[in-house]
Design brief:
This protein is mainly α and 183 residues long. The protein has helices at residues 17-48, 53-81, 85-114, 124-164, 174-182; strands at residues 10-11, 15-16. The longest helix is centred in the C-terminal third of the chain and has 41 residues, at 124-164.
Length: 183
Amino acid sequence: MPSDFLVCKTCCLCMPLRYGLLTWGYLKTFLDLFFIYFLGAIWYSHVLFCMTMEDLITTTLVIFGTIMDAIMSIIFLIGCHQKKLSVIKCYNTYVKIFLMLIIMTCAHNMLFVASGCEREGISPKVILWGYLTLIAAHCFMLFILRSEIIKLENNTESTTTEMTQPECTLKMIEDTEKQNEIE
């Protein structure tokens, strides 16, 4: 099958695929929760020190996006523990959409920096490396999610095929021997 061309059997070349997905899921959920706490502290301190309305809206949107990401990660962990293919496929779609949003945000910010509207604070190089790290992590997540989906689909097809095919066995009945004796 052409879709099986790039399928990994292990995660990070060291652990089974499913356990690797669970590890990534727990790590991502932990980092999301830490990031929510960190952003909440920044938001609260900026509200006290009268930050601009643009910064307040941006920080609030990032907090809500991170909360949504944490909720989706938790749903993914539950689905991965239960081996629910529909939940894993839904999370796969979510990761694709989230990756596109990250790429668009990265492009927007890099165009903003390239136009000379650089802000004080964090260096554009640090921001670019942060975006590239996020993009690489999400691409890797997509790759191992795709591998797990293919693996689960193949397992589902084989068990379905085994269940639908009737089992035929030949049994010798003693009645046939009795019929032979009678004749």
